[in-house]
Amino acid sequence: MNHTIVFQKGKNEITNRALATRKENDTFKKTDQSSTSATLGDGGIYSNLEDLAKWDDALRNHTVLGEKEFQPGLTPVKLSDGSEPHWPAEPNDDNLHPGKPVSYGFGWFLDPYQGHSRIVAYGKHDGLSNGD
Question: Which tens digit of pLDDT belongs to each residue from 44-81?
Fold first, then answer.
């Protein structure tokens, strides 16, 4: 992965970086993450499609983590009383399915789709979203 970095403002730069846009009145303005939302793994890792494909391949083939180490990411958590967690009952922007059960592994939502297993990580920052 030669095109992936942990971005630190003032310490490194990213050429050809895509910025988000947000509509203000009748115009669009470029936006960026706040310094607190872009902390390392939460939005401060910048990559390109080729490197993300390499990362995906390394996870799938257990190059980064062995099969045993990867298993917690694919195992739905249970609450301390043994029950399954649910989304909060009250809807809001970050609540994908109010009141419904949520299947979450170590870092990913476990969200089957049309009979196939699927792991998903949702996120959003000012002007960016991968969960909508």
Answer: 788 889 999 999 999 999 999 999 999 988 899 999 99
Same domain? For 24 and 74 the reply is: no
Sign of CA dihedral 1, 111, 132, 124: negative
Higher pLDDT, 40 or 2: 2
Q: Which domain holds residue 51?
A: 1-64
φ, ψ at 19 (rounded to 5°): -110, 150
Q: What is the pTM of this model?
A: 0.68
Rounded distance between C-alpha atoms, residue 52 and residue 46, angstroms: 10
Residue 28 CB partners (closer than 8 Å, separation 6+): 21, 22
What are the E-state strand segments in 7-127? 20-24, 27-31, 45-46, 109-110, 119-120, 124-125
